[in-house]
Amino acid sequence: MKNSLRTFATGALAAVAVLALTASSFAAAAPRVIKMTGTEDMRFSVTHIEAKAGESLKIQLTAKGNQAKEAMAHNFVLLALGVDMGPFITQATMARATGYIPAAFKAKILAATPLAGAGETVEVTFTAPTTPGSYPYVCTFPAHYAGGMKGTLVVKAAAK
Length: 160
Known about the structure:
- The chain is an alpha/beta fold.
- It has 2 helices and 8 strands, in the order αββββαββββ.
- The chain has 2 domains: 1-30; 31-156, Cupredoxins -  blue copper proteins (Immunoglobulin-like, Sandwich).
- 23% of the residues lie in helices and 29% in strands.
- Residues 4-27 have low confidence and may be disordered.
C-alpha cells in the first residue's frame, strides 16, 4: 500500500510539473499587448512602438469620443516598408465598403484592425517583421492620416 501511494504521489508530482512547464511555455509565447487610444482630434496615444524582429504583438485600439461611428471611427493599419503613402491613403479614402482598407494594397498591409467607434475596442495580433526598419502605421478613416493619425513601429534586429 505504501509503495502504491508513493508511486501515485510521484506520478501526481510529475503531472503537476509537466502542467507547470506547459503553462509557462504558453505564457512565454503570449504576445506583448500595446494599448492605445484614438481620439476625436485624430491622434493615436502611442505613436512610436519598438519591437524585436519576429516578436508577437497585440495592438488594442480604443476609440474615445462622442461622435457617431459613421462620422468618426479609427483603425490601426501597419504597412510594409516602402509603401507610397499618397496612393495608399487616396485609395483607402475611397474604400468605404471594405472599412477603408484598399484591396489594391492588401499585400502591403502587415496588420489591421476593423474600425472602432466611440467606446469600442478593436485588436489585432501579429508577428513583427523580421527585417529591421521603421514600419508606418496609420488610421485610414478619411482625413485622419492628413490630420496626423500615424505612428511608427521600429523593428530592431534580433539579438544573436
